[in-house]
Design brief:
This protein has 133 residues and is an alpha+beta fold. The chain has a single domain (8-130), classed as 60s Ribosomal Protein L30, Chain: A, CATH 3.30.1330. It is 22% helix and 35% strand. It contains 2 helices and 8 strands. The strands form 2 sheets. Strands 1-2-3-8-6-7 form a 6-stranded mixed sheet, with helices on one face. Strand 2 and strand 3 (32-38) form a beta hairpin. Helix 1 (53-70) runs parallel beside helix 2 (91-101). The radius of gyration is 15 Å and the shape is globular.
C-alpha cells in the first residue's frame, strides 16, 4: 500500500549544461530515496572525469555518497544497486570497489554491460536506499 501521507521530494538537481534543472539528483518518498543514475561526469563541462575505470568508479561512488548524505541516508542503508559497465573486463575491479564501499549485509545488485551516450563513460550506477527514522 502506498503511504498517502508521503510526497515526492527532490534531493538536489542536475542542470546538465543548462540553467533549468533537467532531472533530480535523487527523489525521496517517505523513508526511501531513489538516486538517478550517477555518471563520472563533470557537470560544469559535461566531460568524463577520467579515462581510467577505477577513477571513474570512485568518482561515481563519491557523488553517490554525497547525495545519500544530503538525503539523510548513507551506504549502510543502500537497498539496491544497478550498475552499468561499458566493458565486461571491468567487472572484477567493480567487485573490489563494491566490497570496499558497501558494508555487509550488502545490497541487492544487478550489473550489466551497456553503451553510454557520452563517449569515454565506463560506468553508471543507480541506487535505492532507505532513510532511517
Amino acid at each position: 500500500m502506498i503511504d498517502s501521507m508521503a510526497t515526492r521530494q527532490a534531493v538536489g538537481s542536475l542542470p546538465l549544461g543548462g540553467t533549468e534543472p533537467l532531472i533530480s539528483t535523487a527523489v525521496r518518498w517517505g523513508d526511501l530515496v531513489f538516486l538517478s543514475g550517477r555518471a563520472p561526469i563533470d557537470v560544469a563541462t559535461m566531460t568524463v572525469v577520467s579515462d581510467d575505470f577505477e577513477e571513474q568508479a570512485r568518482d561515481v561512488l563519491r557523488t553517490i555518497g554525497e547525495t545519500l548524505t544530503e538525503a539523510g541516508s548513507g551506504f549502510e542503508h543502500v537497498l539496491r544497486v544497478v550498475c552499468y559497465l561499458r566493458r565486461a573486463e571491468d567487472f572484477a575491479a567493480w567487485n573490489r570497489l563494491w566490497a570496499e564501499t558497501f558494508p555487509a549485509p550488502r545490497p541487492a545488485r544487478t550489473t550489466v554491460c551497456a553503451e553510454f551516450v557520452l563517449p569515454g563513460m565506463l560506468i553508471e550506477v543507480e541506487v535505492t536506499a532507505g532513510v532511517p527514522s
